[in-house]
Design a protein that fits this description.
The chain is an all-beta fold and 118 residues long. The protein contains no helices and 11 strands. The protein is 0% helix and 58% strand. Strands 2, 4, 5, 6, 9, 10 and 11 form a 7-stranded mixed beta sheet that branches. Strands 1-3-8-7 form a 4-stranded antiparallel beta sheet, with no helix packed on it.
Length: 118
């Protein structure tokens, strides 16, 4: 599985950005996708995730501001980020959770930088 993320950039506080992540390769093995972020000097943390069935999960810090969605036909997951805050500044990584008959593996995209200015 390969993940290609896009959509990061510089935005003022209160603004919006949409991240996209397109999966290719053995996409039939993917059971869930999501976004993590890592701010400078901090550990990587889950931002939002979505299962193949559409169940979503959000970090408390982004609930009500971020929305994750998925286009299964395009094997693409999106993260709509509204009301951005300077503390949302981080490198955002796309993630896919893939399962086989007797294995499980995490896949990561290359990361896209989101910078929110105050």
């Amino acid at each position: 599985v390969q993940l290609q993320a896009s959509g990061g950039g510089l935005v003022q506080a209160g603004g919006s950005l949409r991240l996209s992540c397109a999966a290719s390769g053995s996409t039939s093995r993917i059971v869930g996708m999501g976004w993590y972020r890592q701010a400078s000097g901090k550990q990587r943390e889950l931002v939002a995730s979505i299962t193949n069935g559409g169940s979503t999960n959000y970090a408390d810090s982004v609930k009500g501001r971020f929305t994750i969605s998925r286009d299964n036909a395009k094997n693409t997951v999106y993260l709509q980020m509204n009301s951005l805050k300077p503390e949302d500044t981080a490198v955002y990584y796309c993630h896919a959770d893939a399962w086989g008959s007797n294995w499980r593996r995490d896949y990561w995209g290359q990361g896209t930088l989101v910078t929110v200015s105050s």
